[in-house]
Design brief:
Layout lengths: L4 H18 L20 H5 L12 E8 L2 E13 L2 E12 L5 E7 L6 E2 H8 L4 E5 L5 E3 L2 E3 L1 H8 L51 H17 L4 E11 L1 H10 L5 E7 L18 H5 L6 E4 L12 H7 L5 E4 L10 H4 L1 H10 L10 E5 L8 E5 L6 E9 L11 H5 L4 E3 L1 E4 L2 E5 L9 E18 L5 E10 L3 E3 L1 H6 L11 E3 L19 E3 L14 E7 L4 E7 L2 E7 L6 E5 L21 E4 L1 E4 L5 E4 L8 E8 L10
Parallel strand pairs: 4-6, 4-9, 5-7, 9-10, 10-11, 11-12
Antiparallel strand pairs: 1-2, 2-3, 3-6, 7-8, 13-14, 14-18, 15-16, 15-19, 17-18, 19-20, 19-21, 22-31, 23-28, 24-27, 24-31, 25-26, 25-28, 29-30
Length: 633
């Protein structure tokens, strides 16, 4: 009898599930025995005495195939035995067919993400063995997709459901996420419950501990693969995976390179003495391997304010960072590619990687305008130098939030070259707010790199960006240095001339739609009674969406060669349930695009597909008086 590919997959899944059900776990090691007193209170105590190599891996292969010369597997490996129950971690693993002595990577997904075959496949094509772990239970591979609903089917044991698939089994614990098996998640918590390890408040009750444990066991899995060079292992991850990357590198000397994105630098709150055992700084202070920080300027989870502190804490002189302006928890290829470049450089010894740009900030100047001097490493040809600065955010220990972090605006300061130094003046609008400033140096790649980004979209880029360490300057320091206010509030928001797009951003370069955070600054705040105006030229009739935070106005464009005037009242801009804006005072982000989905219950999509070439814009501004009559009447 010849079995089809799908039939063999189903049989493998069934067999693996049956074997796991029948198997009796080996006796629980000491780390899996619940504590009723004296919980660990430091990173050292938390991991003391745990041998990540001691237990068998009990690997189960759930699906195996070849794709583009790459051996691919969906599998599970044993994390350990906790409270007498075995924990099995699902993952996607792959390597180039016939490969040997390969560097190995552990890829750790974020909170809303999943283990992905795309990360494994693209890495394998570049000479790596990679395991992408499904700590939340979710996983995607051809003909093997475990989504949120499938995770629930698994933990509920509904094997008769046709959508049931074997995935991560946390046993007596609950380190699932989005959804969690129980209503109360344990990320960051220490209190005991029936699904935590210890019966007393303990950092071992935190799901961060469970997931970091699983990531360290993934290193053991890589070590034991015949095609892997165990001396060249790296870890990277995004968001919650960024934090887990730092927890792993900061507790396991087998990690030789780490690249956390959007996480691993800002979880520092001490609400209980037990927090110290799992806070980012505790692990940054123990990282001795080379580290590359991928930290978008507006990220809410890995905040730019904490980058200078993180660099002081790490114990390695080998570090780099890349900071994309305006972005929040997402990035574009020339920044995302940092992970691939870093692993190539450290684990494979390939490529010339310039050093971090040197910067000097001068506050005391003849005209009262600060100047940033940038000295890039020229071991590779420099394609460009860009200086960005912002006035929005919190300093002096005050709490950051999504408004002052996620929507902060960054000015582009034109940099002029004088020999090997680029200089940029930083004119300020007022001196009552702090100053953040950093430099980006753009380099070309020796050859284009293709990879899977933060959310597994496949990209190809021929360049990359290295960033300087940010300068953070408080109000008192600005004022004592004699810095002057040389910018004034302006009704003109955008003239769409020159490098105007550098003040805007997109996560979809293939789309013409753009967003800006200019309205979050005092320079472009709306005067009382103002209306929002601009001129648009569209070759074809279309609907233009003017988005303002989570509200939007739909504007009918006539099409043709003539410029069309658009003037909007706050009442013309509606949210998901069609409630109009009361005024412009709270608006921070503005978007011009063809469509937008407004979040709400229910969500509402506005606009639609765009016809013809991208539109042209001019004179985005605030208008007052009779010139401000709305065109949306």
């Amino acid at each position: 009898m010849i079995l089809s590919k799908s039939s063999t997959t189903c049989l493998a899944v069934f067999a693996a599930s049956l074997l796991n059900t029948m198997a009796q776990p080996t006796p629980s090691p000491s780390y899996g025995t619940p504590l009723s007193q004296n919980p660990p209170q430091t990173r050292e105590d938390l991991w003391a005495g745990i041998d990540m190599r001691a237990e068998p891996l009990d690997v189960e292969v759930l699906k195996e195939w070849e794709e583009d010369g790459v051996v691919m597997k969906v599998l599970r490996y044993r994390v350990g035995v906790f409270k007498g129950q075995q924990v099995m971690m699902a993952a996607v693993y792959g390597y180039p067919k016939g490969g040997s002595n390969l560097p190995g990577l552990v890829q750790i997904h974020g909170g809303g993400q999943h283990a992905s075959h795309m990360a494994v496949l693209t890495n394998a094509k570049r000479g790596y063995a990679t395991i992408s772990i499904a700590w939340a239970g979710r996983l995607t591979a051809p003909d093997y997709k475990v989504n949120k609903e499938a995770v629930k089917l698994f933990w509920e044991g509904k094997t008769d459901d046709p959508n049931h698939l074997v995935t991560t089994d946390w046993g007596a614990l609950d380190a699932y996420h989005d959804p969690s098996r129980h209503k109360v998640t344990n990320f960051g918590g220490h209190k005991p419950t029936e699904w935590t390890l210890d019966s007393v408040e303990s950092p071992r009750n935190s799901a961060w501990f469970s997931c970091a444990f699983a990531a360290r066991r993934a290193l053991t899995f890589l070590e034991k693969q015949p095609e892997v060079d165990a001396s060249r292992l790296g870890v990277y991850g995004h968001s919650m995976g960024g934090k887990l990357s730092v927890l792993t590198a900061g507790s396991d000397e087998r990690v030789k390179a780490v690249a956390p994105s959007c996480g691993g630098i800002s979880h520092r709150e001490i609400k209980s003495p037990l927090d110290a055992a799992l806070n980012d700084n505790s692990y940054l202070e123990n990282i001795t391997c080379p580290i590359f920080f991928l930290s978008p300027s507006n990220d809410f989870h890995g905040r730019i304010n904490d980058l200078p502190t993180a660099v002081k804490e790490i114990k390695t002189p080998e570090w780099r960072m890349t900071i994309s302006p305006h972005h929040n928890h997402q990035d574009s290829p020339e920044y995302e590619v940092a992970t691939q470049i870093w692993m190539d450089h450290i684990l494979k010894g390939e490529g010339t990687l310039p050093k971090t740009p040197k910067t000097t900030l001068a506050l005391k100047t003849d005209d009262g305008v600060p100047v940033l001097a940038v000295e890039p490493d020229t071991s590779k040809p420099v394609l460009g130098v860009e200086v960005y600065y912002s006035r929005e955010g919190q300093m002096d220990g005050k709490k950051d939030d999504i408004n002052n972090t996620g929507s902060r605006f960054w000015y582009l300061a034109p940099a002029t070259q004088d020999g090997g130094v680029w200089k940029a003046a930083l004119p300020l609008c007022g001196v009552e707010k702090p100053l953040w400033v950093y430099a980006n140096v753009i380099y070309g790649l020796d050859k284009p790199i293709t990879g899977a980004g933060y959310y597994y979209g496949v990209y190809t880029t021929d360049r990359f960006v290295l960033s300087s360490l940010p300068h953070l300057v408080g109000v008192e320091e600005l004022q004592s240095a004699g810095v002057k206010s040389t910018r004034s509030p302006s009704l003109l928001i955008e003239d769409f001339q020159g490098d105007w797009k550098k003040h805007w951003f997109t996560y979809k370069p293939e789309d013409w739609a753009l967003s800006t955070n200019k309205l979050s600054t005092g320079e472009w705040k709306a005067p009382a009674g103002a209306r929002l105006a601009l001129e648009v030229r569209s070759a074809e009739p279309n609907t233009l969406v003017v988005g303002l935070d989570n509200s939007a106005a739909e504007v009918a464009l006539q099409g043709g060669a003539d410029w069309q005037s658009v003037v909007l009242n706050p009442a013309d801009v509606l949210d998901a349930v069609k409630t109009p804006l009361a005024d412009w005072s709270a608006v921070r982000q503005l978007r011009l695009g063809a469509d937008q989905t407004l979040g709400g219950k229910p969500a509402r999509k506005v606009g639609g597909p765009w016809q013809g070439p991208p539109p042209e814009f001019r004179n985005l501004r605030w208008v007052t008086g009779s010139q401000g009559e709305s065109t949306k009447k």
